[in-house]
Every structure is written in C-alpha cells, then in structure tokens.
Amino acid sequence: MIGTFPLPYPFPSEIDFLIGRDRSPITMYLLHEDHGYHRLSLYCPYWMINKTGLTLEYKDDKSGKVFKHQPGDDFIMLSCEDKKHCKINLSSYTTRGSKTDWSSSISLQAVGTSGRYHSRLPNTSIVNHFGVAVQLSKFTLSKLVIVTPYYLLSNHTQTDVTVHEERGSGEGTLVPKGQVVPFWPLVDSSRLYVTVRKDCRSVLFNYKKTDSVVLKLTNKPTVLIVDVQETESSNIISFSSYYETCTPVQFINLLTDATVVFKQDIK
C-alpha cells in the first residue's frame, strides 16, 4: 500500500504521497471520467525499471529532487515538477560502491526513443555507460523508462570465457557459457582480449565499433568468433565457437598462376 488520502469533491488532479523505504515524496495524478458514475484512475507518469544490477539515482532536472533505485527493486515510480517537459539526470554507484557524477539531461517525453548516457567517477577515468529507452505502458498515461548496461557480454560457446581490458589490472569479467552479463569498463581503452582457462589468451580486438572478428587463441588449436553489434542504446559483444564456413569473410583465388597470402589486421 502506498498510502491513504482524503478524496474531496470536486476531485483533485494531483495527490502527494510518501513512498518507498526512505518515504520519498512523489506526486501522483488522478484522472476523473464521468460516465453517469465517477471513474477514477490513479497513476504515476513514469515507471523506472533498473536492469543494470547497480544502485541508480535519478534527479529531477528542475526541482533537484532525487529518487534512489536499488538493484533489487523491480521498479520505482517517478514524477517531475515540469509535467510537460520532464528531464532527469542519472547517477550510479560503481561495482566498488563509489558514486559517480550526474549524467547530462535525459528527456522522458518522447515514446520510442532510446539513447546512450554516461556518468563519470570523479577524478578517475572510470565511466559507467547506460542505455535508456522510453516505452508506452498499456495504460497510456504512464511511460516505462528502462535503464540497461550499455555494454553486454554474451557467451554462445560451450565453455566459460573471461574478458579483460587491454590495460586492465583486475581479474577480468567472467562470462559463463550460455549467459549474458553486463560489462563496466574500468580503463580508457577500446580493446579487449579473452582468456579460456589461464593458459589460452586471444589477440586484442576493438569492442567499440560494429565488427566480426576471428580470435586466435594461444596454446589451443582453435579460434573464437566475436561479433560486436552497436546501436543507439546498446553495444552487445557476442562470443561463439568457430565452425567450418562460419568465417565472416571468404577469399576465393581465381588466379591460375599465383598464390595469394593474407593475414588479419588486429590493430
């Protein structure tokens, strides 16, 4: 239950509540329809859905009111002081628990829009990137605002892989077979490499542009295929096992008197 309130007549169009663990104030709206009887619809204009696995904070761009969104909450309700031009700023807590700066303004008005936003950890090169998509709910007066990790790692192979940043110093990000996990870069680099067990390492590849690359593994007579698909609100990095004829490029030598030699450019 979100609370109780008196209902005077004529009916108000706005009602203030205190909701959530921290009893945050929020404005709900009341739609009144007279069909010979009174039909009342209580609604919140924005439902925030957090799929990042991180704790997020949203700040009303006009009033400065802050809404905290824990990763265990399926959704929270949000309202803006400026009802016609609602804009928010996004902040997050990193996987190590440090709070980032606020992102640039995010407009929640246009249904069907999506975009990429980021928030930076002060005095570091660590930047959390997010995809934000605005959708219309079945009850058309409310919008669904879905926040996801911008970078996702998808493992379609039959073995676990670990993804490392080019100049990273940690243990990397484990991606179990058949699973998709978020990726939060910790260094300012555009290249990654993969390890399968501790003795098999791939060559470097660029994960910040759409591409399909064959990755050779050291100490193992096989390769992996990596596909990078970048859109406005996501960058999905997929790994799959190599099989015959699955290569992204095929070379056919139609010359009758010359042998052609080529190699992959990994820069």
From TrEMBL:
Annotated Vacuolar protein sorting-associated protein 13 VPS13 adaptor binding domain residues: 35-264
Gene Ontology biological-process annotations: protein retention in Golgi apparatus; protein targeting to vacuole
Pfam families in the cross-refs: VPS13_VAB
Similarity remark: Belongs to the VPS13 family.
Protein name listed in UniProt: Vacuolar protein sorting-associated protein 13 VPS13 adaptor binding domain-containing protein
